[in-house]
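Chapter review: from sequence to fold.
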Amino acid sequence: MVRFIKSNRICLVLSGRYAGRKAVIVKQYDEGSADKPFGHALVVGIERYPRRIIRRMGKKKMNKRSKIKPFMKVVNYNHLLPTRYTIDCSFDAKKINKDSFREKKQKRSALREAKSKLESKYKVGQNKWFFNKLRF
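The token string follows.
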């Protein structure tokens, strides 16, 4: 069977608090682990999308509206819908991993890392579909 759930693949979260949100797969666990004996993936996604920007806005307002609020979650494969899109965003494996959920300080630094990476990709203008809210 072909493995199509790979890292850097954009997917949609189908259930839970972040249902309907777009996310990027950081690391996949096909065989499961000791605590989760099913296939799952660590994803980083967008909880609050950047707002629309028009030409006549000032720089300060543009920067304020370009902010992204990320989330980080371990999700079962059954609750992910992989898309055909990928994003070339390499997250730091030392900061963003399953162990960063244990301490609040580590999770905060991991979310800060994810936020900086996603905002830099947004400002470059790549993957515009990923940074638009999913309307359904």
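Two observations follow directly from the output. The CA atoms of residues 40 and 78 lie 8 Å apart. Strands lie at 9-13, 22-29, 40-48, 69-76, 80-86.
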